[in-house]
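Sorry, explain these tokens?

___
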Amino acid sequence: MRQVARRSFLRGIGGTTLALPWMESLGVATATTPKQRIAWFYVPIGVVRRGFFPGESEANIPRFSGSRKEILQNVKSPLGLNPLELTSTQKPLERVKDKITFITGMDRAFQEGTDVHAQCASCFLSSAPPYTVTQSAYPLARTLDHVLADKIGQNTPFKTLEFSCNSHNDNKESIYFDNISWYGTEHVAPSMRDPRKAYRRLFATQEINASRNITDLVLEDARSMQRNLGYADREKFSEYFDSIRTIETQVERLEDLKDELSKVKFAEPADAYLPRGEYIRLMGDLMVVALQTGLTNIATFMIGPERWDTPYMFETLFDKPRSHHQMSHNQGKFIDDLLKVDRFHMEQFAYLVEKMDSIEEANGTSLLDNTIFTYGSGLGDGATHQYSSLPIIVAGSGGGKLITGKHLNLANQSIPDPAKERKYSQPTNGLSLNNLWLTQAKALGLKLDRFADSTGEIGQLLA
């Protein structure tokens, strides 16, 4: 009865506080070298190439194709580093142009016989090469964010954080269409989608004490029960204790930050409908502050799900809800509307990049300077379903490790002989996307020789 009463008492505890950025006048900085962070901004269903890629503004508008075998017009830029000239879709990045690198010529291998959209979302950061995973329809294994967490996420309250801007509650598709972060094959890392729930999970310091008390109760009950178990069950309980200790460690790290988390006011989000842009920016604000305050060094941010035909109300663009996926299959009819959606997504990315760049850190650099923040999609074009020539923009330099202010073209400007292609891939004309992930991982100090089907790091991207 005593335990029941204690649990009843613990049920309603909550709080509302957040953390200060570093300020020189406060003299509270304990380190002169800020931590490196990494985050991804995932855009579903590809982009309209006419607006995104240089040299393609007059290219033919592609028809829908499910074959993934069509290669669209190549980017008309010399190989290697080029001056950065923003295209019409990229114009929102003008104010932070010197802090980004536009990368073209990145391709992704595709495992034939599985769904296009599910694979491009779930496998965007996957560490598995095609046809190496037998227990899944997709080449899906531990994703890069969790691989990196073992290196740079050990001392933060949250090793990784996953954010999603899919506010729909109808399960139109499986989890493979709606998550880019995975602990391992078939083990998804659930995303935070409700701003209020995300706020309370991250920044309610009074709930830290509640979590501590609840964890103590669980451990107390478990230890009491363990004394009456046989050998096999004690082995199972050993695994259980490991899970609880993980929670315990997280709570301890949150307690270490509690004083800092009480210094800045950040209003708890209202329980009300938000226009699409405001909703995305609010979720982005939560991610940025989590990176700023040291709650995590690693985050994924999914702007929306793949192929989910439930329409969104893009309040600033259209007067009625629209389905991004359905429009993408008829570019000839909806080209102007699709360009507006692409620009809208880029505006949200630019908002977050500028916000990061406005936050000063202890050594005078900005949060953006110490972060690698990648915009990308698993499709190069939504109509053709192509996995080649993906839209990739990298903002920030990860503490000076990567170049910025350039256009890096990695395409070889020729279409290869299909007979020489690997069995699992469409014809490609560029470099594996996993070379980029390998380069970013090594820039953050991870000692890797290979990531998925990478063939080496991208030396031209390194500062």
